[in-house]
Amino acid sequence: MNKVIGAFEKVSFPDFGLFDVVAKIDTGATSGSLHATRIKEIELPTGEPALRFLPYGKKQRIVVNSFQLKEVRSSNGASSLRYFIPTTIVIEGVQYPIEISLADRTLMKKSVLVGRRFLRSHGFIVDPKKGTKYRGEVK
Q1: Inter-residue long-range contacts of 51-56, CB under 8 Å, 24+ positions, other chains counted
Q2: For a Cys staple, 12 with which of 72, 80, 90, 128, CB 3.0–4.6 Å?
Q3: d(CA 62, CA 45)
Q4: What is the CATH number of domain 3-134?
Q5: Which residues of the chain fall short of a pLDDT of 50?
């Protein structure tokens, strides 16, 4: 059964302590993105590679040891490399696994973008008339 969500929805990332963040649900974007800064590959004391970053709205850095560097093409056609991490997203009270990229979204209106790969894989349908109450909320 398909789940209908709006063009803007409140989502949470419990792994990072981020709750009720307004996300843009974007069927035009292939993948999703979470605003993060100070993104850096590090080496753990065990010698294992890890990724350290500061997620939107947080003062404490997060360290994850599961990540991939992938090429992403923006809507204007420019390519760049971004880190992707597996995590959990909560939409309308239900948890879903998601692989999301980390990017500095300072200049964007929303700090989270949910793309069509995730939407399709979890049976979401986007109704642009639904979720408009969050459209004007900043970040």
Answers
A1: 51/83, 51/85, 51/102, 53/83, 53/102, 55/13, 55/16, 55/18, 56/18, 56/21, 56/105, 56/111, 56/112, 56/139
A2: 90
A3: 16
A4: 2.40.70.10
A5: 139
